[in-house]
Amino acid sequence: MQTFNLTATGHNLNYLPQYIAQRHGFFQKEGLEVITTIPTPWDGVLDALAADEAHMALGGIWVPSMYRERVQNYTVFAQIANRCPLALLKHGPAEGFKLTDVAGKTVLMKSGGGASVGLFFKMLLRENKIDARGVDYIQDLDGVMLGDLFQGGMGDYFVTDNLSARAMVEKNPNVSIAMEMVTQGDVPWSVYYRETATTTPDVLDKQRRFCVALAKGIEFCNTTDPASYAEELAELFPNVPVAASIAVVNQFRSNAMWTSPVIPLEGYDRWQLGLRDARLVSEPIPYTTLVNSGPAIEAVEAAKVSVGKEAPASDGPVQAMPKAVSTAA
Questions:
Q1: Residue range 202-221: average pLDDT?
Q2: What is the pTM of this model?
Q3: Selecting from 3.30.565.10, 1.10.10.10, 3.40.50.300, 3.40.190.10, what CATH number does the domain 2-82+187-303 have?
Q4: Does residue 41 have a cis peptide bond before it, meaning omega lies within 30 degrees of 0?
C-alpha cells in the first residue's frame, strides 16, 4: 500500500465522490492509502506542496491559473466537481426572481475559502449582460458571520454553498433560495494539482490509480440513491439536517455536478475567460498548458466509466510533464 497525501482547501459536499471512494475502499483497491489534511488558512495547501508534505492539492483551478509563470507552475490532472456548488439566497419568497433583480442591490458573499464565490457570481452576471460593478458586495467576512447578518437583515442577497443554503432555509422561513448555481453550466470547480517540476513517472502512476478510484466514487454517487446511505451523509456533514444533504446530492446528481475525473474543454475555456475578465490571468491559459489529462483519461478507460463531454485527447501514454522554473512575483 502506497501513501498518497492530499491537502484540501476544505470539507465540502461537492467532494462527496472522494469521500465515498475513501469510505468504500476504492483507493485501497488501487493500492493507495489516501491521507487528507485541511490546513487553516486554506492557502496552506501550497505550503504543503512546496514542503513535499502532500502529493497533491484539491481546490479551485483559479489558483494554479493565476500562479502560473508568476510564482510557481502547477499541473492540474483531474477534477471532482464539474459545476458551481453555490446558491443565491434572498429575503422573502423566491417566486418570480430574475438574475437582473440583483442589479443595484447588495450581495453578501463568503470568502473564507478563497475567491471562487465572487469569481463565479460576477462572471455569471457578466455572462447575463448585468454590470457586475453596479452591485455592492460585502465579502470580506466569515461565512457564518455573513449568514447570521443576512438573516438579521443585512443586504439583499447572500451567496453561500448549496448545503448551507438548504440548511438555512429549513430553519428560517423568512429566506428562500433564488438560484442554485449548479444549474448554471459547466466549470471545473474543484480540481487536483501539484507542482509541475516535481511530477515524476511514479507520481503520474499514482495519479492514474487515484483517478480510477475517483471515477468509481463518481459512478457510485450518480447511480445510488443518497437516502440509502443517509447514515454516511450524517457522519460526513453532522452540522446540517440529513434531509438537506440528501436533497443537495440529488440536485447535484441531476445537474451534472459529477461527470468524470477528466476536465471538459468547454467548461475549462469558460472558466478561463471568467478568470481573465476578473484580471487573475492576462489571457486564458490553453488547456494543455495547465492540464495533463492523461492520468484521468487512462483511469476512466480502466474504470469503464463514461468520460462525459469530450476533452482534448491524451498524447499517447501518460508522460511526465516537462520541468518548469518557478519565478518569484
A1: 96
A2: 0.90
A3: 3.40.190.10
A4: yes
